[in-house]
Amino acid sequence: MTTTTESHSTARLDWPLNARLAALHCPRTDEHVVSDGEDEVAQPAGSYVTLIYPEVVGDFVYFRNDLKVAAAGGDPDDLSDIELLLDQVPLSEVPMVYELRTSGMACGPVSNRLWVGFDLAGGTT
Questions:
Q1: Listed residue (66, 73, 36) closest to 51, CA to CA
Q2: Residue 69 to residues 35, 55, 63, 89, 105: CA-CA distances in angstroms?
Q3: Which listed residue, 47, 90, 118, 121, has the most CB atoms within 10 A of its CB?
Q4: For residues 48 and 123, is the Cβ–Cβ distance under 8 A?
Q5: Is 124 domain-assigned?
Q6: How far apart are CA 55 and CA 77, in angstroms?
Q7: Other C-beta atoms lying within 10 Å of the C-beta of residue 17
């Protein structure tokens, strides 16, 4: 499912809970951005990556500095609501956000999400 808001486009990808997460690559450069669980990927993984936010961590693994300042209005501690942030902050001229979602049953319902943002108009170094 893909949705578009005024600030970004989101591709929501549902992933089976027990399935191994596939490695995620940049749609512009094919650079390896998110690990498949085997190896760590140094961040920023590529010049087009704007953010990486794993829900399980509850904080950004990577958030491009210029966007961090714009998003927080100078207050870097005010970045806890990723969905609100994505709706309010213009990430770039051509932003793309992948939201990978897992859900299932363990000892009750469990779910997790991972957001990875890209600036498809042009990266920074």
A1: 66
A2: 27, 21, 10, 10, 38
A3: 118
A4: yes
A5: no
A6: 16
A7: 13
Nearest to 6 by CA among 106, 90, 125: 90
Q: Name the residue among 34, 45, 116 with its Cα closest to residue 82.
A: 116
| 125 within domain boundaries | no
Q: Is 75 a member of any domain?
A: yes
Long-range Cβ contact pairs of 34-43 (< 8 A, separation 24 or more): 34/114, 34/116
Q: Residue written as tokens 């890209």?
A: 118
Tens digits of residue pLDDT in 14-28:
888 777 777 788 888
- Residue 56: other Cβ atoms inside 10 A: 7
Q: Report the distance separating Cα 4 and Cα 38, nearest Å.
A: 32
Q: What's the number of domains the chain is made of? A: 1
Closest CA to 100 of 112, 83, 88, 109: 112
Here the tokens at position 125 are 């170094």
- In angstroms, rounded to a whole number, what is the distance separating the alpha carbons of residues 19 and 123? 31
Q: Report pLDDT digits (tens) over 25-66.
A: 888 888 888 876 656 667 777 788 888 888 888 888 888 887
